[in-house]
Amino acid sequence: MLKEMMRFISRGHKFLLQLNPGYFLHTGTQAPQSTAVHLDDQVPVESPKVISRTSESDPAKHGEQHEGQHYNIPFQDLKTIFPHGLPPRFVMQVKTFSEASLMVRKPALELLHYLKNTSFAHPAVRYVLYGEKGTGKTLSLCHAIHFCAKQDWLILHIPDAHRWVKNCRDLLQSTYNKQRFDQPLEASNWLKNFKTANEHLLSKIKVQEKYVWNKRESTEKGSPLGEVIEQGITRVKNATDAVGIVLKELKRQSSSGIFHLLVAVDGVNALWGRTTLKREDKSLIAPEELALICNLRKMVKNDWHGGAIVLTLSQTGSLFKPRRAYLPQELLGKEGFDTLDPFIPILVSNYNPKEFESCIQYYLENNWLQHEKSQTEEGKKELLFLSNANPGQLERICAYL
Amino acid sequence: MAAPVLSAVRGWSGLAPGVQGIVLRLPGVTQVRWSRYGPEYQDPKIDKEYYRKPLAELTEEEKYERELRKTQFIKAAPSTKSSSVFEDPVISKFINMMMKGGNKILARSLMTQTLEAVKRKQFEKYHAASTEERATIERNPYTIFHQALKNCEPVIGLVPILKGGHFYQVPVPLADRRRRFLSMKWMITECREKKHRRTLMPEKLSHELLQAFHNQGPVVKRKQDMHKMAEANRALAHYRWW
After folding, report:
1. Contacts of A279 (CB under 8 A, 6+ apart)
2. Rounded to whole angstroms, what are the CA distances from B160 to B156, B157, B181, B227?
3. A98, B120: Cβ pair inside 8 Å?
4. Do the Cβ atoms of B115 and A400 come within 8 Å?
5. Contact B142 A379 (CB under 8 A)
6. Which helix (H) or strand (E) holds B6?
7. Phi/psi at A153 (nearest 5 deg)?
8. For labeling, which of A152, A176, A309, B17 is most exposed (least CB within 10 Å)?
9. Do the Cβ atoms of A287 and A293 come closer than 8 Å?
10. Which of A184, A94, A233 minimizes the C-alpha distance to B127?
11. Would you tell me how many other CB atoms lie within 10 Å of the CB of residue A211?
12. Which residue of chain B has the CA closest to A97?
């Protein structure tokens, strides 16, 4: 009953006024902000009611005064921190506008606040970003990843866990454990991107065991983790085992204090759902029988300390889940929810009026809205109606206008 | 026989009275496509501004018209026409022509993807160009679409006329709606048939639209071929009797 009520409220045209009682408290202090000029805010030429950009590109300094404003991610950071993981439409937008700007929003600010105050002696806390389709869960995750990368954490980012449980062409029987299956292509791809993201930290972490790959190759104890990753990339057959080793070593050594670990998984409900992969005799494979999924489940357990775990639920790539499902209980199922329990849920919802204005302003500044009528008040009202302030829908509609 | 034909003909709203007369006069001709609405039915007015005018601003004529419409029968508005500010009759017509098997959702999504593709290509060109060239690059996909279709419209067409046992291709002036139809038809057939099987429609269409916008490409060439044929058959022009 409570679920039905929450769904009813979020679906209507009330922009979170009931769910976010703090919004009213903030509007009073924020109203003069749009007319006043802060030292770190860029004022656009025509000085509209809502400022859509901020020149503060360090996520650590983002606070409530930046809410609703877009900040730029420099291209260098984009190439190193996000070799994978950005939504495909966002990548297209970055290419078209020649700049990557992300909106600073409340759920991301909340998450950053928690991450800033993580205590590394306690077990890793799990944060779950959930919300309806197109509300900005993946981009909030990317915001958190940008912050952690700037603070020199080690980022373990799985861009889409759903891609590991479906459409896999080659499944090998694992050499390490006969019951499990290997996915060489996905594993080697992920290792390549992991290496690009964390190049500078990999040489500092040493492997604590000897690993024998086959008769001729082995990795000695005390060699840098980079070697294991190289082995996984070059010998694609051992890629899944390399991934397993990387995860195990990172989990063991995260408490040592050399580095902080951020585990970021997008679409974590894939770990406990169903797969569409079949064996040669056409019988279905459960997620437990995939080595990658098994190792990831161990990573997401909170029995290690020295970092944080940020997860996103996603219905878009999920298998056998109804289209309207977005709550953690619905998407994770009983098994997943019990494994992840306790976690901190963070709801990501549609744009509030200020964020909507800011988004439209951003598009107008980049001349993205080319239709003459879309630049008028009537057009803006119609955009609001058509998209219901859903960020994903608004982006798709503005793309062809 | 004549009486039922006559009564059927009276129900044809949308036909010009002159054409109605011609059709009535030809013996044994029964129109197949006819509307269920009688001549007393008025077309619906979908314009938001018409209804938003406050009563004080209306002239006597408009007030009379409003009162009259309250008592008349009005046809149902088609579900494809909306009072949205972004609505464009040319785009709607093009979508209908692209539609196959009644799949309007697919046709509309192809159209929106085409407009997006055109926009992104133009933005690429804009960013790569120098400041002088930037003023000449058009980024609005709608202006490009309209201009491209206008550039593909033929001015004169050919009609087969039977004379002395032979069919002659006679040059004939085309009505506005025939020209618009031909331009859209040529554009769609060009993209469907002459391109590689595996390329997607938005990709093909956006490429063709951009070429037609610059007066290049196969569709404009087809229009020019049509004009050349008409010029070549100029001598037969007097075979036309209308």
Report:
1. A171, A285
2. 14, 10, 19, 15
3. no
4. yes
5. no
6. helix B2-10
7. -85, 165
8. B17
9. yes
10. A94
11. 19
12. B123
User: Beta-strand (E) ranges in A184-314?
Assistant: 211-212, 218-219, 261-266, 307-312
Q: Is some CB atom of chain B closer than 8 A to the CB atom of A96?
A: yes
Q: Cβ distance A79 to A73 under 8 Å?
A: no
Global pTM reads 0.84
Provide residues of B within 8 Å CB-CB of chain A: 84-86, 112-113, 115-116, 119-120, 123-124, 127, 139-142
Which amino acid, A138?
T
User: Which tokens in the block code for residue A129?
Assistant: 């970003």
Kindly list the residues from chain A whose CB atom is less than 8 angstroms away from the CB atom of residue B124.
96
A385 touches chain B (CB under 8 A): no
Dump pLDDT digits (tens) for A351-370.
Answer: 999 999 999 999 999 999 99
**B116, B124, B127 ranked by CB distance to A400: nearest:** B116
Residues of A whose CB is below 8 A from B142: 370-371
Q: Which amino acid is at B214?
A: H
Angle between helices B104-128 and B89-98 (to 10 degrees): 120
Q: Are A222 and A207 in contact (CB under 8 A)?
A: yes
A-B CB pairs within 8 A amount to: 37
- Model pLDDT, residue A22: 42
Torsional class of A260: left (φ above 0), alpha (ψ -120 to 50), beta (otherwise):
beta
Burial A65-91 (b: 16+ CB within 10 A, else e): bbbbbbbebeeeebeebbbbbbbeebe
Task: Indicate which of A89, A90, A96 best probes the interface with B, i.e. most B CBs within 10 Å of its own CB.
Answer: A96
Give the number of other Cβ atoms within 10 Å of residue A398's Cβ: 20
> What value does the mean pLDDT take over residues A361-385?
93
Q: pLDDT band at A11, cuts 50/70/90?
A: low
Interface touch B86/A378, C-beta < 8 Å = no
The DSSP line for A377-391 is HHHHHHHHHHHTT-H
**Angle (CA) A113 A116 A120, round 5°:** 135
| A260-288: burial string, b at 16+ Cβ within 10 Å, e else | bbbbbbbbbbbbbbbbebeeeeeeebebe
pLDDT digits (tens, 9 = 90+) for A49-96: 678 888 888 999 988 999 999 999 999 999 999 999 899 999 999 999
Q: Is the pLDDT of residue A30 over 80?
A: no
- The interface predicted TM-score (ipTM) is 0.83
The three-state secondary structure class of A357 is helix
Write the pLDDT tens digit of every residue in A233-284.
998 888 999 999 999 999 998 888 888 999 999 999 999 989 999 988 999 9
Distance between CA atoms of residues B28 and B24, nearest Å? 9
A401 in B contact zone (CB under 8 Å): yes
Tell me, rounded to whole angstroms, the distance of Cα A105 from its chain centroid. Answer: 14
In one letter, which amino acid is B159?
Answer: V
For residue A261, which of A205, A220, A316, A210 has the smallest C-alpha distance?
Answer: A205
**Strand-pair category, A218-219 with A211-212:** antiparallel
For B35, phi then psi, to 5°, come to: -95, 145
Which residue among A96, A373, A400 places its CB closest to the CB of B123?
A: A96
The DSSP string of B180-240 is HHHHHHHHHHHHHHSS-TTS-HHHHHHHHHHHHHTT-SHHHHHHHHHHHHHHHTGGGGGG-
Complete DSSP assignment for A49-74: SS--B-S---GGG--GGGTT-EEEEP
